[in-house]
Write a structure and sequence with these properties.
single chain, alpha+beta, five-stranded antiparallel β-sheet, five-stranded mixed β-sheet, globular
């Protein structure tokens, strides 16, 4: 997909947009030398491990190994296709571009699927509001006190007990296979394809951009006990439950402004709260609250009003035991993400929907009385007859039940306040409790220990990119001809080729840019690799350091070659099948002499040429065999021969080298 977008377009966007500014809209960044550091939004962490390099335009997390360019960052954060991310940033940068035929083809499946889902949402919505077959759905809406304006805002719908959805989508030009892939119908061998949401009230599920990506449905005929009460369409390439929050597309602007979010469990909870004016309500989509959803909310925590630590997530779950369990679970995930959880405990028998039915004042009162999980747990234990704080055993039990919750609090100010309160109630000293808290706390991940050690080849590459004045020195030791057989890493081999052929190296003072290094837009994996290499801090070097590293790279290859030859030569010598006139034996002997300090550089240059020829000849033999095989196969079918032009050109070039 990346290759389908003209490279000059992505380069123009990259020139106009600073990666620090764009990524800084999602993540708080601070300068660290020539780079910027921030907490990675793609995994939970306490210590910043994501580096942003403003020079290369790349970012990389040394904690979870995610990385890439600016477009891939926005792609992940916004759950977009690559093309959609480029289009979004192009609009931001004021760059216009047209979609190529290749890009249209690559993007067509996703676009058709989203268009299909929009058509389905329109069909369901019209059924609920206008069609006689939607009467049951309208009666249910009235019974739940949902106004027509609210139904229009959330695009609520109804699926009648017939096959009209399938027929409507087929007439619109969609194929049965496409409708099946979107999860809207099931293929029954006896009755044929049928709407899976028959007889249900429909809730369109949208992504952050407001595009319909899935549907939820509630059974309206309660006599059908054998049918699931609630149902979601299945996950698809464009819909993941773990990464989606119902209602976020409607709530996101107010969440950003108010720095507050109300988290509930059900679709109707969200709808009822929005109807009475609580427009920051969202819900998980038929699943327990996830880390991915916490990271999604965290995107809206960076605002002019303060840091992410001041962002409050009010957990308004049902008042039953299951709701309390869900609150405790979500609290840990939210605190771990660096946000602040506030638990809203409703009166017995209540849920957010029933509370909203009594009006905004009742909802606001419950929100005002919200408290942290630690405060709630302390209050509950103090009121319990099971804990006797006059006895040492009761004091110990009190501390043991609070400590696991206390360790979840990442805000040091709140943690200290809770700890002082715990000390007061339990009679234990703050010093003793601090010691217990450290032992209870899970060991933090040392990001530096998780950083992969670079190979000598990777270190040499990063030095050459950041300080191109050393490339000439490196080329004297590691020549262009050596790259084919010295580097097993194909990506690095390509990068070194580009570096070694740059013009005017002796005069350069600035680092090598990505457009100079790559002739085309790199794919996602290549960008991730480059990001890892280029965002890490570079070590200070002098000529001797660079020379030693280049020699180490060359020696690593020669040692591998020596090991390979030893496996071939020693058995042949024992069997008397080889003598000292054999070129492999001479090469083996010279390499042994070199590693014993007995060979000079002239001898080693001859060995390098021998190794190069060995690799070239092996590659030429492989190409020749493949091409001959293809020619024979093609000629047995017809007279035309279809051989990859690039492979055939490589074959001819190697043949010229040997000539």
């Amino acid at each position: 997909m990346a290759g389908a977008i003209p490279q000059n377009i992505t380069e123009e966007i990259s020139l106009r947009l600073s990666p620090v500014d764009v990524i800084g809209e999602y993540v708080q960044l601070r300068r660290s030398g020539s780079k910027y550091l921030g907490l990675c939004p793609f995994h939970d962490e306490k210590t910043p491990s994501m580096n942003v390099d403003p020079d290369s335009g790349l970012w990389y997390c040394f904690g979870c190994q995610a990385g890439g360019n600016l477009f891939q960052f926005v792609q992940r954060m916004e759950n977009l296709s690559y093309f959609e991310a480029v289009r979004l940033l192009a609009e931001k940068a004021g760059v216009a571009f047209e979609l190529s035929e290749t890009a249209q083809k690559d993007n067509s499946e996703r676009l058709r699927a989203l268009n299909l889902l929009e058509r389905a949402a329109d069909y369901y919505h019209a059924m609920l509001l206008e069609n006689p077959d939607g009467q049951l759905g309208r009666e249910y809406m009235i019974s739940r006190n949902i106004a027509r304006d609210t139904a229009v805002k959330f695009r609520l719908g109804y699926s009648p007990d017939n096959s009209m959805l399938l027929n409507t989508l087929l007439k619109a030009g969609f194929k049965t296979e496409e409708i099946l892939k979107c999860g809207l119908i099931r293929d029954n061998n006896y009755y044929g394809p049928s709407d899976i949401m028959r007889g249900r009230l429909i809730y369109p599920i949208c992504d952050v951009q407001g595009r319909v990506v899935a549907f939820g449905g509630r059974r309206l005929d309660d006599s059908k006990k054998d049918v699931a009460k609630y149902m979601n369409t299945p996950e698809t390439p464009w819909y993941s439950k773990r990464h989606t929050l119902y209602g976020l597309n409607w709530a996101k602007n107010d969440i950003k402004k108010q720095h507050v979010c109300v988290l509930v469990e059900g679709y109707f909870d969200v709808i009822s709260l929005h109807q009475v004016g609580v427009t920051t309500a969202v819900a998980s989509c038929g699943t327990a609250f996830t880390q991915e959803q916490a990271q999604l909310l965290k995107r809206f925590s960076v605002s002019e009003r303060g840091s992410a630590e001041a962002f409050n997530v009010f957990l308004m779950y049902d008042s039953d035991a299951a709701g309390e369990k869900a609150t405790l679970s979500a609290n840990e995930i939210i605190e771990e993400a660096g946000l602040r959880a506030q638990a809203v405990f409703l009166p017995a028998g209540d849920d957010p929907d029933s509370l909203a039915q009594r009006g905004l004042e009742e909802v606001q009162k419950a929100l005002n009385e919200a408290e942290g999980i630690v405060s709630y747990k302390m209050r509950k234990l103090l009121a319990s007859e099971a804990i006797d704080l006059t006895a040492p055993e009761g004091q110990a039990d009190f501390v043991r039940q609070i400590m696991p919750l206390l360790r979840q609090v990442k805000d040091p100010v709140r943690r200290d306040a809770y700890l002082r309160r715990l000390s007061f109630y339990s009679g234990s000293s703050e010093t003793r409790l601090y010691s217990m808290l450290r032992s209870f706390s899970r060991a933090g991940t040392n990001v530096r220990k998780s950083i992969r050690r670079f190979t000598a080849e990777e270190e040499l590459f990063t030095i050459c990119v950041s300080q191109p004045r050393w490339i000439s020195l490196v080329r004297e030791i590691v020549t262009v001809d050596m790259l084919d057989y010295m580097l097993e890493d194909k990506q690095l081999r390509t990068y070194f080729y580009a570096l070694f052929t740059l013009p005017n190296l002796e005069e350069r003072t600035e680092a090598v840019s990505l457009p100079e290094l790559l002739s085309a837009e790199p794919d996602a994996e290549e960008n991730k690799r480059l990001a890892e290499l280029l965002t890490r801090d570079k070590m200070a070097t002098d000529a001797e350091d660079v020379r030693k590293l280049a020699l180490a790279v060359r020696d690593r290859m020669w040692r591998r070659r020596l090991d390979t030859l030893r496996l071939e030569i020693v058995p042949a010598l024992d069997a008397g099948n080889i003598d000292n006139s054999d070129s492999r034996y001479q090469e083996y002997t010279q390499l042994k002499r070199y590693f014993h300090g007995e060979a000079d550089e002239d001898n080693m240059r001859r060995i390098a040429a021998s190794l190069r020829d060995h690799v070239w000849r092996s590659r030429w033999d492989a190409l020749r065999r493949g091409i001959v095989t293809e020619q024979q196969a093609e000629s047995s079918i017809n007279s035309s021969i279809n051989i990859s032009a690039s492979r055939y050109e490589e074959y001819l070039q190697l043949l010229r080298n040997f000539s």
